[in-house]
């Protein structure tokens, strides 16, 4: 401002044009509005699941069907067919017989927590080679809260 008046310098036409040093906010506001519209349109697409507060109940464990096979592997790697210990040759023969059935049964594997994974993998691979592809792992259910 000039000291002798209250008229700003930009309104005085004295021939000396100065460059405009103000930021033009209109293009930035336009960009922000476009981004806001894009965000509003795409936000509902980001939610892929319905949020539901599910009940917390302890369900009874599935009881095995009579035809299902329960194999247990103890911490020493010994394999048990139901409650009887079996040798590798006998396990091979029994799994071969079960795999030849018209409707092969499910093999439920109960492995000790301390058993080497290699023993469990061997049992799984043997069952798969014999045509028993439905494998399940049995675990103790968590205690009710």
Q: Span from first to last CA?
A: 76 Å
Mean pLDDT over the residues: 79
SSE pattern: HEEEHEHE
Question: CATH topology of the domain at 69-137, which one?
Answer: Nucleotidyltransferase, domain 5
Low-pLDDT segments: none
How much of the polypeptide forms β-strand, as a percent range?
5-15%
Lateral arrangement of strands in the main beta sheet: 3-2-1-4-5
Q: Main beta sheet: strand number and arrangement?
A: 5 strands, mixed
CATH architecture of the domain at 69-137: 2-Layer Sandwich
Discrete helix count: 3
Rough outline: rod-shaped
What is the number of beta strands?
A: 5
Helix content: 25-40%
Backbone structural class: alpha/beta
CATH class annotation of the domain at 69-137: Alpha Beta
How big is the Rg?
A: 37 Å
Function: Involved in the TonB-dependent energy-dependent transport of various receptor-bound substrates.
Family: Belongs to the ExbD/TolR family.
Subunit structure: The accessory proteins ExbB and ExbD seem to form a complex with TonB.
Organism: Rhodopila globiformis
Structure summary:
The chain has 145 residues and is an alpha/beta fold.
Structure description:
The protein has 145 residues and is α/β, with parallel strands linked by helices. The protein has a domain at 69-137: Nucleotidyltransferase, domain 5 (2-Layer Sandwich). It has three helices and five strands. Strands 3-2-1-4-5 form a five-stranded mixed β-sheet. A hairpin with a 5-residue loop joins strand 1 and strand 2 (79-81). 8% of the residues are buried. The mean pLDDT is 79.
